[in-house]
Write a sequence for this structure.
């Protein structure tokens, strides 16, 4: 296992699951895609998993939307949009003996099954993490070493991480209890699972990030592996020319970023990566421009 003083990407490359979360609108998907691209460039076989049904990961990767299938996104890199109901349906069909597809259809359509899937606390979140666990432990197509999960925003992201443990406490017997306990142990193991928090250097995102770090320590038992401050305004060049109002706004945004970075630094002593705001659309060109910064991230 890499030491905490090792570079960030070296530490993440030794994990099997990297969960990226953060407040909505901070560029979480871009950060997840950037990590996936960087880890694949380091030689790892990486699957980027997205849980948002609106699908935005394909834009930054420059590929077709997944639609639930696994899509190639570059050398040693794949992407998939994954929804919990589809995972649950796949498990039901997998457990049915060959030739009993009709039975599976009846189970899936039955109101009891539908109410169970919709209402069981933590079941959908555990199913998503269980799929990641299955892929890295039991193989799949493609075979992958690391899964980078573009997780839901802060509150739901925390629920995703805590769900397997809560479900394992509630279901202790039988095959479901055994599988749930394995998934809970997987997520709780800091040598197999890491959390990266994305944020903006603005008041509300930084506040939410500091609160999330505290909750991760309390409820998951460890802090994040890193905090990524995204879309930082560069310093306004001396002698810059342009509309007075625009230059004033630029300088004000930079002052805000600097102030909030100091607040983040005061509350978080771990690895912090700072990514600049670039005049690029969410696209592969953006990833290529940001990769050297991430690859040079400090311990």
């Amino acid at each position: 296992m890499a030491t905490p003083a090792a570079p960030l990407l070296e530490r993440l490359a030794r994990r099997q699951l990297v969960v990226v979360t953060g407040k909505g609108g901070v560029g979480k998907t871009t950060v997840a895609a950037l990590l996936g691209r960087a880890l694949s460039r380091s030689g790892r076989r990486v699957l980027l998993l997205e849980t948002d049904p609106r699908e935005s990961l394909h834009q930054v990767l420059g590929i077709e939307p997944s639609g639930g299938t696994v899509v190639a996104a570059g050398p040693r890199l794949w992407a998939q949009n994954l929804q919990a109901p589809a995972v649950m349906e796949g498990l039901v069909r997998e457990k049915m003996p060959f030739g009993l597809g009709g039975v599976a259809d009846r189970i899936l359509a039955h109101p009891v099954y539908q109410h169970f899937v919709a209402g069981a606390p933590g079941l959908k979140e555990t199913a998503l993490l269980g799929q990641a666990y299955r892929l890295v432990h039991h193989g799949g197509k493609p075979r992958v070493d690391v899964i980078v999960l573009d997780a839901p925003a802060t509150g739901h992201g925390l629920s995703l991480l805590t769900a397997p443990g809560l479900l394992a406490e509630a279901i202790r017997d039988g095959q479901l209890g055994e599988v749930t306990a394995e998934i809970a142990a997987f997520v709780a193991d800091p040598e197999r699972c890491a959390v990266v928090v994305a944020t903006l250097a603005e008041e509300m995102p930084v506040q939410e990030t500091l609160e999330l770090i505290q909750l991760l320590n309390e409820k998951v038992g460890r802090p994040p592996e890193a905090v990524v401050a995204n879309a930082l305004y560069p310093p306004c060049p001396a002698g810059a020319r342009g509309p007075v109002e625009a230059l004033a706004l630029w300088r004000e945004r930079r002052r805000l970023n600097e102030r909030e970075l100091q607040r983040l630094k005061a509350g978080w002593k771990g690895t912090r990566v700072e990514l600049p705001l670039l005049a690029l659309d969410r696209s592969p060109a953006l990833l290529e421009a940001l990769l050297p910064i991430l690859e040079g991230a400090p311990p």
User: Anything to note?
Assistant: The radius of gyration is 21 Å. The chain has a mean pLDDT of 85. The longest strand covers residues 193-200.
